[in-house]
Amino acid sequence: ADDRRHLHVLAPAGPRGGGAREDGSTGEDELVSVIVPARNEAGRLEPALRSLERQRHPGVEVIVVDDESTDGTYAEARRNTSERVRVVRGAPLPAGWIGKTWANHQGAEAASGGWLLFTDADVVHAPDAVGMALKLAHRLGGPGLTVLPRLETGSWAERIVQPAAAVLIRSFVAPGLLIRLRAAPTAIAAGGFILLRRAAYDSAGGHAAIRDRLVDDKALAEQVKRHVGQLAIVDGGGLVRVRMYRGLPELWRGWRKNTSVGVAERSPLLAAFAALGGAALALGPFLAAVRGPRLLAAGGIVLQLGVRADVERFAPTPPVYRLTLPLGCLFLTATSLASSVDRLRGGVTWRGRTYALDRSS
Length: 361
Hints:
By secondary structure, the protein is α/β, with parallel strands linked by helices. It contains 13 helices and 15 strands. The chain has helices at 2-6, 45-53, 73-78, 99-110, 129-140, 156-172, 198-203, 216-227, 247-260, 263-266, 268-290, 294-310, 325-345; strands at 8-11, 14-15, 32-38, 60-66, 85-89, 115-118, 123-125, 144-148, 150-151, 194-197, 229-230, 232-235, 240-242, 347-350, 353-356. The strands form 4 sheets. Strands 1-12-8-10-6-3-4-5 form an 8-stranded mixed beta sheet, with helices on both faces. It has a 3-stranded mixed beta sheet with strand order 7-13-9. It has a two-stranded antiparallel sheet with strand order 2-11. The chain is globular, with a radius of gyration of 20 Å.
């Protein structure tokens, strides 16, 4: 089947307290509401909308929510004349909400489909992406699925950092980790592609239940897991691709924000220790080569190369960059340390807005 050729399940779906069941439907006649929150995405939005407009699945409505953009995002979205695309000018951000959760909430309120697909304004979808994902979601059962996109890179900094980030993301879905235990609260999702049954979204409380969570994809996955069941985690095989950040400054701001509410959300000190541990693992083999057992050092370097090769399909780069995994790990270590400082200071700035972080949480 096409969905099996392109989509590889890394972690299965499941309802709370039991195994997932195939529901017997293929979803061919179902409406999928695709929700695209957009804030200051002028120049990036058009490829994403064009890819959604060209979806082969017949039942697709695209809802673009302009989140008080200060550039030409709204006008760019309105230039798309496809009958599938509807543009909503977002209401002012209420107190207690994060911008993206508010935009997604408004998109869900405007949606009429039995399935909701939350994506980002810089994500490009292959023509079969929605249809294949919907078919697979029916086959797996459970509340829905999230597709890990292919991380595209365009600068030397992205080619160093993004593969290291892919290693980190891939480690969370490895067998035996908390993500696979239904009793554990931990869950992850890729914000560029979260496909949910509307009933599951509503039962979990929707984005209103995570209104103040800065990393909304992880928060939504945990909320759904807590109230409905675990999302399946799927390797998209190139059906979904995204260039998350462009250049070194965006990489720094983006990953600093992402780690601000990861480990740092629970303990800045723990985040600092975890970051230093990651640096030790990255540099350990090379330090051992200078002062230590050469065989151990060689084994560590070979292991790093193997890990890097394993994520090549998630973040493809020219071959020379496969030697730079330690540098990428060090960069992510630095963002984790910086996020710990943000947490202690009680705030983080993202997309031109400053959000308070509760230091006691």
